[in-house]
Design brief:
- Pfam families: Methyltransf_2.
- This is S-adenosyl-L-methionine-dependent methyltransferase.
- GO terms for molecular function: O-methyltransferase activity.
- Residues 183-387 form the O-methyltransferase C-terminal domain.
- One of its GO terms (biological process) is methylation.
- 50% of the residues lie in helices and 13% in strands.
- By secondary structure, it is α/β, with parallel strands linked by helices.
- It folds into four domains: 3-53; 80-140, Arc Repressor Mutant, subunit A (Orthogonal Bundle), CATH 1.10.10.10; 144-211, no CATH class; 215-410, Vaccinia Virus protein VP39 (Rossmann fold).
- The protein has helices at 15-28, 35-52, 55-79, 81-90, 95-102, 106-118, 134-138, 142-145, 147-160, 162-168, 181-185, 192-197, 200-213, 228-233, 254-263, 277-281, 285-290, 323-334, 358-371, 378-388; strands spanning 93-94, 122-126, 129-132, 243-248, 270-275, 293-297, 311-315, 343-348, 350-351, 376-377, 392-397, 405-410.
- The relative contact order is 0.08.
- The model has no long low-confidence stretch (mean pLDDT 95).
- The strands form three sheets. A seven-stranded mixed β-sheet has the order 6-5-4-7-8-12-11, with helices on both faces. It has a three-stranded antiparallel β-sheet with strand order 1-3-2.
- The chain is built from 20 helices and twelve strands.
- The structure holds S-adenosylmethionine.
- S-adenosylmethionine binds next to loops.
Length: 415
Amino acid sequence: MDLSIASEPCDIDSVPRLMNELASLGSSHDLLADRDGRLSLLDKARSLVAALETPRETVIRQCGAETASFYSIALGVDVGLFKELAKDGGIAKKAPALAEALGFDVDVLRRILRHLTAMKHIKQTSHDEYAPNNFTLSLTHPMMADGYPVYRDFALPPISHLHTWLSTKSYAAPVSVVDNPFTFGHQTSLSAFSYLATHPRIAEQFNHHMGGYRLGRPDWFHTSIYPVQERLLDGYENTDGEALLVDVGGSTGHDLLAFHAAFEQQLKGRLILQDVPAVIESAPRDELKVVGIEAVVHDFFTEQPVKGARGYYLHHILHDWQDERCVEIVGRIKEVMRPGYSRLLVNEFVIPATGVSWEATYLDLYMMVMFGAKERTEDEWRELLEEKCGLRVMKVWNPGNGVEGIIECEVPVVC
Ligand SMILES: C[S@@+](CC[C@H](N)C(=O)[O-])C[C@H]1O[C@@H](n2cnc3c(N)ncnc32)[C@H](O)[C@@H]1O
């Protein structure tokens, strides 16, 4: 192989076409209002970067620059760098003043600020002076910032040991919550969720990250995904105080709060949030109470206490578990579903045969290393929910484009 190709753009022939497409996409969309248009433009821009970049630049950027940037941001979150930068309306600040406020060696901080500037994560306003940009400002909120320590301290040890774990298992897929790259990377016998239960700081950051994950994405109840009025609200029978919707494993309630806000006028029934004790304890009880959401501790492997609800909602739950454990989780819900009336709404990625988004593929790999689990294709969902769980899949509502769909199921009526 002639190594000179490492210094040549990866796909120079596509550059003129990509630039034309970018220009026409950029002028034909309202980039603030049109999410799909903006994502198409972003995808095209990434294709242009990939075409223009040389292999050498890709290697150096991915291995060196991105990792140095990632760990610098995580460190910045730890020490409050971004909050300090955002103080006084984000007015530009000198490195020595920032270092003094943070109790940091100025030389170390200056080198970090320099790299974050080079990576376009903060702005340099003059010599030794820095100001936040939109990205940096967003890192002052834990829902954005806490993804960094969560990945560094919880998720990266597993994925960084994937190669070793696989090599000791003849490259077979992990299928257990207690023997996988997570347990290997953390040198623990605990599953990832048991580990969270014993590490409250990481658990809190994880919950913040789950809240931040959903920001700016269409919610499952958006008309482009699942027609809630027609499929859920219209048939709801509120005769004996039956619940309208139970969010099983709903974290601190972000999905139910958003659902309530969207349908406040039409909602008549009970909304119930269930999760493990530590998560329910950290939920915003007052905020939930004001809008009437009941937050209760429930282990989804045990008997479901809310019987005959109109909807049971599982968001990013089944992708954490192998099929056998999913059958147990779904089985506990199926036992209390009213045939022909109750719906199980599984909010998960439905992996397409081609054109899959990185939003689904990265998560699939993390599900493998953290839980020995996976994101599923439509065939895999049908096999799990119909063949193994005995439900009827009424419809798969799959918006694609890196957004989770709803797999709507019921218990069939036996005549
Ligand atoms: C990936 S998070 C998804 C949270 C939420 N549904 C969302 O989409 O933001 C998985 C959730 O399952 C909860 N969980 C794990 N094991 C559980 C169990 N045995 N019973 C109830 N909830 C559990 C976790 O505490 C966590 O909140």
